[in-house]
């Protein structure tokens, strides 16, 4: 009985570690531009909706942000 419980615990922890290994972030990048003239906009805050994760665009309007790789990504400015 103790061997079965120990085996179950080892399998459970193994699955937990395997799941966390696959749930890694991806880097999303882009450029924020003015809709009227297409000029890059520096200093714009880009955030992942529903989180505290964000960044600001550089002088050339570009940004990079790490986002969950689960496919549910919404950026807000």
Features:
77 residues, alpha+beta, 1 helix, elongated, disordered N terminus
Layout: helices, strands, pairs:
Layout: H1 2-22, E1 25-31, E2 45-48, E3 54-56, E4 62-68, E5 75-76
Antiparallel strand pairs: 1-4, 2-3, 2-5
Organism: Fodinibius salipaludis
Protein name: TonB-dependent receptor
Signal peptide: 1-23
Q: What does this molecule look like?
A:
This protein has about 80 residues and is an alpha+beta fold. It has one domain (about 20-75). It is about 25% helix and about 30% strand. It has 1 helix and 5 strands. A 3-stranded antiparallel beta sheet has the order 3-2-5, with no helix packed on it. A two-stranded antiparallel ribbon has the order 1-4. Strand 2 (about 45-50) and strand 3 (about 55) form a beta hairpin. The protein is elongated. InterPro entries: CarboxyPept-like_regulatory (IPR008969). Pfam families: CarbopepD_reg_2. This is TonB-dependent receptor.
Largest sheet descriptor = 3 strands, antiparallel
Number of helices: 1
Number of strands: 5
Inertia-based shape: elongated
* N-to-C series of helices and strands: HEEEEE
Mean pLDDT, to the nearest integer, reads: 76
- Spatial order of the strands in the main sheet? 3-2-5
**Structural class of the secondary structure composition?**
alpha+beta
Gist of the model:
With 77 residues, the protein is α+β, with helices and mostly antiparallel strands.
């Amino acid at each position: 009985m103790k061997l079965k419980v120990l085996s179950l615990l080892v399998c459970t922890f193994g699955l937990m570690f395997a799941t966390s290994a696959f749930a890694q972030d991806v880097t999303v990048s882009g450029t924020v531009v003015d809709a009227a003239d297409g000029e890059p906009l520096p200093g714009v805050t880009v955030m992942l909706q529903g989180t505290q994760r964000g960044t600001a665009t550089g002088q050339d309007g570009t940004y990079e942000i790490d986002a969950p790789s689960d496919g549910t990504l919404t950026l807000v400015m």
